[in-house]
Amino acid sequence: MSRNFGKVLLSLAIPALIIAVSLVAPANADQAVRLQYRTSAPGATTAQAEPWLQLYNDGTTTIPLNQVKVRYYLTGTETYRFACSWAVVGCSTVTGQFVRQQGDGQYLEVGFTSGSLAPGRTTGDMQLRFYRADWQTFTQGDDYSYGPQTSYANWDKVTVYVNGTLAWGRPNGSDPDPDPDPTVTPGPGGELFDDFTYTGSNDPRLAQRGWTVRSSSGGPGVPGATWSPGAVSFPGGLLTLDSSTNGTPSGTVQTELSTTNRKFHEGTYAARVRFSDAPTSGPDGEHVVQTFFTITPLRFDLDPDYGELDFEYLPNGGWGEPSNILYATSWETYRNEPWQAVNTHTEERASFAGWHDLVIQVSGGRMKYYVDGRLFADHGDVYYPETPMWIMFNQWFIDLQGASGARTYRQQVDYVYHSKNEVLSPAEVQSRVGALRSSGAAFKDTVPNV
């Protein structure tokens, strides 16, 4: 990032002071907002900028934080990713997006989904960070809002807006939209529903309806394992994945069903999934992964357009876990060799054997994961998916334990549902699915291809 700034010499100190005071004056005297700034990455060149902020309410009325926007001004047109490392108000309530200005400027706009700031109170630390999407180092020393100080002090080069009106600071550059709204426009943009009433993995309707039963080799899972369409079946209208192993790579069968078109992005995803703790046959103990997820392909190491939203159940542990664990994981990107994962996850160490209603809401920079109507995880920020995804179910083995004798693990799915550009509660999903089934619909797909 680089920009040549012209230096303006003001000949009269008093007019300059008047201008500065007018620019930092609060929009409403009853709502006197003040911002303090420091950085934990003071170098002019960095791999990651780390502006830490805290807001003060010096006024007499409480300010709803969802009316507040904070802007940190940058130089250059590079693509950046935002993250909240820690915040007193909770990172789950803090949002961030980058807004392009005219010319070669942009700003990071930080907002809040909930909370309030009472008179005389402060938000406390908001430890924020951002980095280039290609993970290259960059120069922050020429950014308008940057300062090298490592202790908190009032800082008017970061602005604060309340209800779209400037309440603190001196803006920089063009300001095309005082309050951009990052949320998804309400209302459905099409639905996908499948009740999985197929005769088998070779049923021609699967391909006609946009499904692919995997047969190609490769990850995830045990190198040398087979992905077998023959191990995918639909007894009683249930997608059934039977993955098995005899303890050797050549004797290992993994299973996967995926949408053919990568056309799913914001909206609501849902499925009723049956996880299992024990194999249907043979000795137990394998590190098997049972899943429902969405994914974008990784084009190259640390691809910034990669995205993945996972429910993953490990009945026998794995990845260093000793026993049952359910993960909800949101991915920004990764590199295979040497391994580098850029993700965030929420986990619960308990048995989830049996049927469960799983829902993922993707909207407004947040991904909310629900299990049986209960909020299980709330992720966002840099991990928010940027591109359309496939919907997938698979069951695979992390590694092999070497026990003798064949064993088979089973995962089943009752239905899958997606509503594009619409946030539905778990109860609303159940109502939609119930109405589709009552109408006799076994399959519906009105989600447009992209």
UniProtKB/TrEMBL annotation:
UniProt KW keywords: Hydrolase, Signal
Organism: Nonomuraea mesophila
Record domain GH16: where: 133-424
GO annotation, biological process: carbohydrate metabolic process
A GO molecular-function descriptor: hydrolase activity, hydrolyzing O-glycosyl compounds
Database matches in SMART domains: CBM_3
Region entry Disordered, spans: 169-191
Signal sequence interval, chain numbering: 1-27
Name the record gives this protein: Hydrolase
